[in-house]
Inverse folding.
């Protein structure tokens, strides 16, 4: 690799991983792009695959592929990088975006799983904790809410792909979303039923995992928030806001407050 290539490689790496204002703005730009694509995927999930929608998917696929290639290029261990869940999700989304015109609207609904990338980057989380007070105060609740919403929309897409048109009353994305939410909340109005083994296993998965995620969100909202501060002795990351000693090892803590310099 030439010195000029190496220099460009370093510049790209610093954009993704650096601590400069330019790198921070770049990562916030990626966050905005992720949010826009997710909103777009959700808004068009129930739409037929018109030519304009296919063209938009291709454009988004090119942009996602560029981001994917950049992250892979700067990764120190590329095999380990490829095995990360969010990288696998991006690969799946790329496959769906390219193949949806041939596989149909049901498979196109799987584009929403890209929401798994949202705020799950280590460097982006660091930026948000540093720059956004609201995020610092409510990080657990925000992440729990994101995980629950991602689960709902991902399971909706899966229900539509696997059982759409094969179960009574389950024909469209809206039907699948309605079934997923009523199953997760254990409301079960009974107007859409799973009559096969596969469908019932899906319903059980929605209830078990969905209720667990919902309880995690409720706990994050109603249980007093912890402050993220790494204990220098034992490494415990979360403590009570007024803690002066680590509950795990008893080491003195110096937790910064909003008024600290």
């Amino acid at each position: 690799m030439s010195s000029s290539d190496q220099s460009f490689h370093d510049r790209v790496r610093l954009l993704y991983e650096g601590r400069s204002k330019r790198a921070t703005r770049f990562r916030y730009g990626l966050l905005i792009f992720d949010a826009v694509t997710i909103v777009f995927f959700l808004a068009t999930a129930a739409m037929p695959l018109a030519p304009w929608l296919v063209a938009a998917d291709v454009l988004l696929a090119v942009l996602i592929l560029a981001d994917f290639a950049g992250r892979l290029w700067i990764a120190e261990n590329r095999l380990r990088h490829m095995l990360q869940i969010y990288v696998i999700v991006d690969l799946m989304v790329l496959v769906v975006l390219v193949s949806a015109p041939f596989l149909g609207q049901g498979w196109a609904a799987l584009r929403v799983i890209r929401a798994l990338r949202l705020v799950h980057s280590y460097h982006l989380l660091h930026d948000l904790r540093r720059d956004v007070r609201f995020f610092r105060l409510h990080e657990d609740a925000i992440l729990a809410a994101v995980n629950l919403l991602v689960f709902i929309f991902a399971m909706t897409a899966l229900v539509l792909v696997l059982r759409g048109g094969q179960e009574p009353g389950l024909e469209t994305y809206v039907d699948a979303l309605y079934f997923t939410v009523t199953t997760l909340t254990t409301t079960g109005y009974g107007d859409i039923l799973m009559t096969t083994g596969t469908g019932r296993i899906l319903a059980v998965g929605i209830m078990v995992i969905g209720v667990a995620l919902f309880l995690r969100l409720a706990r994050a909202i109603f249980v007093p928030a912890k402050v993220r501060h790494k204990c220098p002795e034992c490494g415990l990351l979360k403590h009570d806001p007024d803690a002066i000693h680590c509950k795990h090892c008893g080491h003195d803590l110096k937790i910064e407050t909003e008024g600290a310099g």
